[in-house]
Amino acid sequence: MRPLAMLVAILLLTVGTVCAVFPGAMLSAAPSLLTTVGLYSIGALRLGMGVVMLWAAGPSRYPKVLRAFGVLFIVAGVATPIFSEDRARGMMELGAAQGSLLIRAAGLLIVAFGIFIAHAVTPRRP
């Protein structure tokens, strides 16, 4: 499961870096994800990431933390399709109205989360 967890970490690092460096690109890509299919896809991705976190938690450095993050991902994955397109669009517009600083800060938080996951699933040196 470690390779899949590293893939999740790389995905988070990529998305976070794009958010932090190019906030306008994320704002222009967001409307294409705010459709019914887009929301279901995001929900499925979050569910998959949660399952990977739960499976990778056992041999990791921080099993309890990764399990908690896995459960959080699963809850977010189930909740994502429940939000309507209008509500998701409203949340996106609210974030965009705050300016690029908020998007950059969220990107940096996502990068930090990806780094933590990569560190947690990397084996300890003897």
Give a brief description.
This protein has 126 residues and is an all-alpha fold. The chain has helices at residues 2-21, 23-33, 36-57, 63-79, 85-97, 100-121.
Which helices and strands occur, and which strands form pairs?
Elements lengths: L1 H20 L1 H11 L2 H22 L5 H17 L5 H13 L2 H22 L5
Helix pairs in contact: 1-2, 1-3, 1-6, 3-4
How does this model look, in words?
This protein is mostly helical. It has one domain (2-121). The chain is 83% helix and 0% strand. It contains six helices and no strands. Helix 1 packs antiparallel against helix 6 (100-121). The two termini are 21 Å apart.
Characteristic key phrases:
126 residues; mainly alpha; 83% helix
So how many helices? Answer: 6
Could you state the order of secondary-structure elements as H and E? HHHHHH
How does the overall form come out from the CA principal axes?
globular
- Describe the oligomeric state of these chains in a short phrase: single chain
The figure for the number of domains is 1
What number is the mean pLDDT? Answer: 89
Q: Roughly how many Å apart are the termini?
A: 21 Å
| Alpha carbon gyration radius | 15 Å
Question: What is the β-strand count?
Answer: 0
Proportion of residues in extended strands: under 5%
User: What structural category do the secondary elements indicate?
Assistant: mainly alpha
- Uncertain residue segments: none
| Largest β sheet strand count, sense and barrel closure | none
Assign a percent range to the helix content. Answer: over 70%
